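Sequence in, structure out.
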Amino acid sequence: MAEVQLTESGLKELKDRLDYLKSVRRAEIAEEIKIARGFGDLSENAEYDAARKAQAEMEGEIVEIENQIRNAKIIHAKVVTFLDVNKGKEDTYTIVGTAEADIAKKCISDESPIGKALLSGTVGQTVAVPLPNGSVKTIKILAKK
């Protein structure tokens, strides 16, 4: 698996999720399977099938998280304030690794076109960023932390 860039808080979130899955969710699903077995014939038991499917998905998530933790490279999040010149709107985003990107939380990937531009540009610089949809976003970097 390739290197996964994470902030320290992102790594902690992954470790917390892994701990929850192993210590709490595994036991919950085992109980669901035990209860579903009590319903009788397993070949026609929808509750049993659903519990086994949930178990397989959870175990897959555990493997994925363990791989991300094993291949984690800690990066420092950058908070960048910029002016969207096209819209005349000022905004602030946190630049994080791809695994932590969440536009709803104003966290964008360091590998996205805008993330790359914000990281490589300097305060006061205006940058034209080509977007995947073919348009161009013009941004002026106002501050970096």
